[in-house]
Design goal:
Distance between the termini: 49 Å
Number of strands: 6
Largest sheet: 6 strands, mixed
Shape: elongated
Helix content: 25-40%
Number of helices: 6
CATH class: Alpha Beta
Order of helices and strands: HEEHEHEHEEHH
Number of domains: 1
Strand order of the largest sheet: 1-6-5-4-2-3
């Protein structure tokens, strides 16, 4: 069984050389896509960890308008189910959009940190004495950065069309919660930049008016 995100994050704490950071390494949107108007969307997080799946799907549903966690419709995922069958089931249940996330890759990258054991200019004895005792030999060392890549894709289900796709890279995530929070935050920011999220917000406001 593959390790869960929680275990990957825990492993990142040992030997890491940098703090948690996320960026979008690549994004794509359908050039002809109109602003999103999902009447009933579904949020999917692909993982073998059912508790984590529910947590992330709830988080996605809270951040996007008219989106329901997939676990409420498909409590247990049968990987043998045909792809066409699942799409048909979702459409038959009235779902017209899907946001799906999954861990695509985990890479461990060695990083060398230089030491501080040399001086850059001549010193008098007194100055060197103080410098020598305040800066004893400090050798360089190798550590590692753990980079977790997550794919996020948004589909229009009636025509089975990809609308938006992104690959995020998070360095040394300290927890599954912080990892998924930061990825969702970056995805929302990109959707706003692309003009796809604003329509979802305006749609909600118009219904409440």
């Amino acid at each position: 069984m593959r390790p869960t995100i929680a275990l990957l994050c825990a492993a990142a704490l040992g030997g890491s050389t940098a703090c948690h950071s996320t960026h979008l390494a690549a994004t794509w949107r359908d050039p002809g896509a109109q602003p999103l108007h999902f009447r009933k969307g579904v949020a999917v997080f692909v993982t073998n960890d059912e508790a984590l799946r529910r947590t992330v799907e709830d988080k996605l549903s809270a951040q996007f308008t008219n989106v329901t966690p997939s676990y409420r419709f498909v409590p247990t995922v049968d990987t043998a189910t045909a792809r066409a069958e699942m799409a048909s089931r979702l459409r038959a249940a009235g779902f017209d959009g899907a946001i799906i996330m999954r861990v695509a890759d985990v890479a461990v990258v060695p990083v060398y940190t230089t030491g501080a054991y040399w001086y850059d200019r001549p010193y008098g004895f007194n100055s060197y004495w103080g410098y020598a005792w305040s800066s004893p030999y400090d050798p360089g060392y190798y550590g590692e950065n753990r980079i977790v890549t997550i794919e996020t894709q948004i589909y229009s289900l009636p025509d089975d069309k990809l609308i938006f796709a992104a690959r995020s890279e998070t360095t040394n995530p300290s927890s599954a919660k912080k990892l998924t929070d930061s990825v969702i935050r970056h995805i929302r920011a990109r959707l706003r930049k692309d003009g796809l999220l604003l329509a979802m917000i305006l749609q909600t406001v118009s219904r409440l008016a």
